[in-house]
Here is the input.
Amino acid sequence: MPLALVVTSDSASRGSLVSVLNLTGWRVLDVPTVTAGMQQMRAQLPELLILDQKLPDEDALGMLSRFRHMPGSETVVVAVMVDKVERATALSFVKAGVAIFVAKPIDLIDLCQKLAGKFSGVSRLEPPEPSNDPLARPLVVLVSQNLNARDATVMALGDEYDVFYYDGMKGLDGERREAAVIIVDEGMLGGFDALPQYHALFGKVPAIALTARGVEVPGYEGALVKPVRDLTVKRVVRQITNRSNFGVLAMPSGVIIRMRDGWHSSAEAYMEGLCDQVTEICAMAKGSDRRWVCIDGPYVGATEHINRSKQVYQAAAAVKGLHVGIITVLGDLTRVAFEMRIPPTFVQNTAANFIKVAQDLV
Here is the structure.
């Protein structure tokens, strides 16, 4: 595995750059100063040196002039990160042995393509593979350096979604996952134009613009206005991820479908679409070797809404081979089971009770 040494004090660029190099087959060391970089190279020369034009203790050209006197330095490919590629600056760097120019904000896809063309054993940056489980908790990626936006998003979505806060300064830890939606803060380096980089990291999925103006942004599915509001982010993310009508809590052996507020008083056309979605979720549950489905939510099983509850239950039960039941806190369980034509053991007043019954059957 080839070694790349990244020398930059730019925290906004370091995290994503180091992550992408790791993902494409590099062993990476990163240091913030020329002094630390020179010390590292005296200990071990890298195959690739990525150097920031502006460093706190010395400029890049000064470092390169000393670096080129080190034995073996002629074999090292040098890339330089610049705010702007200007002719005079470019000529100076070319004379110093720079082979690759990297303009900020960094085009990670382009950089990986250039490196893959120069080195064997490294790859281009490919998007992550979709999850094998269609009912896994959707991943929402918030690209921002705003801690208030982070806290509000986690608070609003954390019960149904996995929220990953990506500020560009830290790496990607753990297994790489495809996101369900990406929220991009306009204050990030590169602004909204950097979306292709986030698509490369997290998958080509719908994106939401986080802006102070609340205007539509080309290429984005929706917009959120700063500061982030709990109800607004829930509504927009649920709509884009097709979870407006219900939430889904998937477990290894089964799925709880939680109806949203107001489902029981909706128009008939809405109910038909909702029931189709419930059937689809149940088909996914069976297809992923789950054995039970439970319907939960406000007014499920309530006497005045028993017909609507039946509709949803029957939509779930249409998928054969699943144990289907409901959770209700609004009536006598035996009566509800009789009126809805459900086996009494599959009508419970808590999710814990239903799961215990279902697990015993499985």
User: Anything to note?
Assistant: DSSP finds twelve helices and 15 strands in the chain. The radius of gyration is 27 Å. Residues 268-287 form the longest helix (20 residues). The first strand starts at residue 3 and ends at 7.
